[in-house]
């Protein structure tokens, strides 16, 4: 029997506006913060009563961009592919979709554990959640929020399957002060953390290639040679032209 229609209860707002540059997992860039604003029907402080006692929360959310591109899951009716090619395996090896966290799944639902920083009360938006370690795009629909329970959710003996050898050391980030100072001071640590995680696909190793992604209203351009990422430019992002 089909489940009832799933509608977003809230949306995430972050400094990352494109898939390139997103942290590959929640928590790997703890400086990257996000703001969760609720839809009008869910702007109820009572629904969050008691949340302040938890340090972390689970977010269930929709892979909205990937789902739109692939037209599957609860965003469409096309059949899913049973295997996917994880980028961290070089883009060639296939693994079962249920053995990965690929966005291309039967139901395009993501799961992230983030640190709960603060509950604020906005005069127009109602309760607003501030979280840290987010790995979500700006505008991502939030489907549900649940508390992280250390006694049940933490499994120290767990094994990581084929993902275990993929835990990589961070890159050294070289960013001229003149470029970094273009960003607001409170956003600099988050950008450096994102860059240190190496946003490139695993199979791209061209030291002359200039990569770029959007961050906090800026376009960040960089190159990578060996273990060092060098920021070339940080430019204000130009507004998109309308026809």
Give a short summary of the structure.
The protein has helices at about 65-70, 150-155, 175-180, 185-195; strands spanning about 10-15, 35-40, 55-60, 85, 95, 110-120, 125-130, 140-145, 170-175, 210-215, 220-225, 230-235. The protein is mostly beta strands and about 240 residues long. It starts with 9 loop residues before the first strand and ends in a 7-residue tail after the last strand.
What report would you give on this structure?
The protein has 243 residues and is mainly β. It has 4 helices and 12 strands; from the N terminus they run βββαβββββαβααβββ. The strands form 3 sheets. It has a 6-stranded antiparallel barrel with strand order 1-2-7-6-3-8. Strands 9-12-11-10 form a 4-stranded mixed beta sheet. β11 (218-225) and β12 form a beta hairpin. The longest helix is centred in the last third of the chain and has 12 residues, at 185-196. The protein is globular, with a radius of gyration of 19 Å. 24% of the residues are buried. The model is unreliable at 70-76 (pLDDT under 50).
